[in-house]
Design goal:
Helix content of chain B: 10-25%
Order of helices and strands of chain B: HHEEEEEEEEEEE
Structural class of chain B: alpha+beta
Number of helices of chain B: 2
Oligomer: heterodimer
Largest sheet of chain A: 9 strands, antiparallel
Number of domains of chain B: 1
CATH architecture of chain B: Sandwich
Helix content of chain A: under 10%
Radius of gyration of chain B: 29 Å
Order of helices and strands of chain A: EEEEEEEEE
Strand order of the largest sheet of chain B: 2-3-6-7-5-4
Mean pLDDT of chain B: 86
Mean pLDDT of chain A: 87
Low-confidence stretches of chain B: none
Shape of chain B: elongated
Number of strands of chain A: 9
Largest interface: A-B, 30 and 26 residues
Number of strands of chain B: 11
Shape of chain A: globular
CATH topology of chain B: lipopolysaccharide transport protein A fold
Number of helices of chain A: 0
Strand content of chain A: over 45%
Distance between the termini of chain B: 112 Å
Largest sheet of chain B: 6 strands, antiparallel, barrel
CATH class of chain B: Mainly Beta
Chain lengths: 147, 186
């Protein structure tokens, strides 16, 4: 939901290691992140904060795969994505998926090696950085006249 | 004939009476049982303020305690509502408090028990707070081990766990068991 990115972030895990001087924290073991309707699942999560202000800047998740979910609107439409590595920039509200990535938004689907998704304006870009091609299935927009 | 048979009975009864009488008279080996000795401090103080200085006369630590009891047989000092202030090499101030405290003789380690709290006030104004059921300060390793409902609160956010080991010098923390992190969005 639009309000997601301004919500507090809650993280659960089996164990963690914090470095206050560097402003980083590593969470490991059944990691679950929640921010409003946003949910991230991973095996490993590293968070980056500003050591002085404490503001949380960025999360890096790794998993087999790491997963990202978010409810898009009140109708319950969802965006679901997976990737070997996932990076969520909480300041720019930007999600980047790397390595064998997949994103499904409502009925549209993408498979690619790299997917960039901008949460606020709901736009995405997909690339293949090695061989292979980007696979994209986009549903035609519903026409008002079509019964 | 009848009289002769009575004599052993009389003798037995006499021995029994003397035995009971004698056993009743002997005082117990020690007037106070061991249990009583263990719960008795060899000295105690009330309204305590203890200041510790280094070789250059710079104050290192202040311990304020409502009551202080020392037990010689256990080499231990027990503190009631200890309130401790300590300055580390980088001159940041550590402030610790709890319901009870324990200090072993000859050691600078302190075990804080019951609503234990340690707050670090850094030179740059930043603070870090540890809370737990028990916090063990280990002087030589310069670490604080929090166990039971442990939490570490800093500018980044607050994180809870079953156990947290915090290294004073590196400002790094290891958290284990049911870790939950909470970060406000600024």
């Amino acid at each position: 939901l639009p309000s997601d990115t301004s919500q507090p972030i809650q993280i659960e895990a089996d164990k963690a290691f914090m470095d206050q001087k560097a402003g980083t924290a590593i969470y490991e073991g059944s990691v679950l992140v929640r921010q409003g309707t946003i949910e991230i699942e991973a095996d490993y999560l590293k968070i980056f904060s500003d050591p002085t202000s404490g503001e949380l800047k960025r999360l890096e998740a790794k998993g087999t795969p790491s997963k990202f979910r978010q409810q898009l609107d009140e109708t319950g439409a969802m965006i679901i994505s997976e990737g070997d590595a996932l990076e969520y920039d909480t300041v720019a509200s930007k999600l980047e998926l790397n390595g064998d990535s997949y994103l499904k938004r409502d009925l549209d689907e993408i498979d690619a090696e790299y997917i960039l998704y901008m949460l606020n304006d709901e736009t995405f870009r997909a690339e293949n950085r090695g061989q292979g091609r980007v696979n994209m299935t986009l549903q035609p927009a519903k026409n008002e006249e079509t019964p | 004939m009848f009289k002769i048979q009575k004599i052993p009975l009389l003798l037995g009864g006499g021995v029994l009476t003397v035995g009971i009488f004698w056993f009743g008279l002997t005082p117990p080996a020690d007037l106070l049982s061991n249990q009583a000795l263990e719960s008795t401090p060899d000295y105690f103080l009330e309204g305590v303020t203890a200041n510790e200085f280094d070789a250059n006369g710079i104050k290192q630590r202040t311990i304020v305690s409502e009551k202080l009891l020392h037990y010689a047989d256990r080499d231990i000092t027990l503190l009631t509502t200890p309130d401790i202030q300590q300055w580390s090499q980088d001159r940041s101030v550590w402030h610790a408090s709890a319901e009870n405290g324990e200090i072993k003789d000859g050691s600078k380690d302190i075990l804080l028990k019951g609503a234990a709290t340690v707050v670090r006030q850094r030179q740059d104004g930043g603070t870090m707070t540890l809370t737990a059921d028990a916090i063990h300060y280990l002087e030589n390793q310069q670490i604080l081990v929090s166990e039971g409902n442990a939490s570490v609160i800093s500018a980044e956010g607050s994180t809870k766990a079953d156990k947290i080991q915090y290294d004073q010098a590196s400002e790094q923390a290891q958290l284990e068991g049911n870790v939950t992190g909470y970060y406000e969005k600024l």
